[in-house]
Structures are given as C-alpha cells and as structure tokens.
Amino acid sequence: MMRRLLPRPALSLTLFLLWAVLGNAASAGTLLLGLLLALLLPHVVSPFWPDALRIRHPGLVLRFGARIAWDMLLANLAVARRVVGPVKALHPAFVEVQLDLRDPFAATVLGSIVSLTPGTVSIDVDRERWVLQVHALDAPDPEALVRQIKQHYEQPIREIFAC
Prior knowledge:
60% of the residues lie in helices and 12% in strands. It has 163 residues and is mainly alpha-helical. The chain has 2 domains: 47 residues, no CATH class; 104 residues, no CATH class. It has a 3-stranded antiparallel β-sheet, with helices on one face. Helix 5 packs across helix 6. It is globular and about 60 Å long.
C-alpha cells in the first residue's frame, strides 16, 4: 500500500522540500500544494524512469552538493571576470570526456551538473561510445578540464550511485 502511494519516496521528499524552500512562503496552502505535487509527480514520471538508480552512499550527497555549489560560485566569478576582459583572451573549446559511467541516468546527472556550472555546457551524452561532449567558454588546457570533470563530478557520482 505504501509503495503504491509513494513509488519513489526520496523523489517525493526532495520535491516537497524544494517546493517549500523555493516557494518562500510557508502558508498551509503552499505546503499542501507542495505535498500534492510531491505525491503526484512521481506517478507521472515513473513510466519514463523505470530503472532509477538507488543512492548507495547518501552521506556523500551532501558533500557532493556542497562541492557543486562551491564550484558554481567560483565558476560564476571566473566567467564574470573573463566576460568583462578581452574576448581574444578566451580559449573556447569542445572537449570529449570519456565516461567510466555506464548508466544513462548517472551520465545524465553528470551532464546536468556540467551544464549548471557557468562556463561549460554539456552538448550530448553519446551512449554508444560513452562520451560526454562539452563546450567550455575558456579552456586553455582542455585535458585539465576533462580531468576536473572526471575527478570533481564523475567519480563522486560513481560512488554515490555505486555504478
């Protein structure tokens, strides 16, 4: 009975908490609407997400989230500095990150994190070759960018999802 009501409890909890935090109003109506969405949305997305990964190391999620937030802050500052500087000082590049991940969901999470970080955009996750294609606004050393993506993001995702 509980599994039918909450097919993805972690997703429901996350949705409710995000709704409450981002809603910026703790009225009963707002929280009730958030609860309703948290209960209904997992049912709506379940057909599109049949084999969701389980978080194997939940403690790492908070540290990983903090790392992402810190990297986003640093990237915002770096992009702002580069945008106001001379355009010819930029070194835009397309790079391919050979993935050790073999799970489509985990690879999508990685691509999303790369896109959230200012100055980089993931273009595609090639699941035939398991390559993440990324465009960087400024990558004077493309190999260093690849190493950073693999060490800062891919490795923790592999640990969190045990894949």
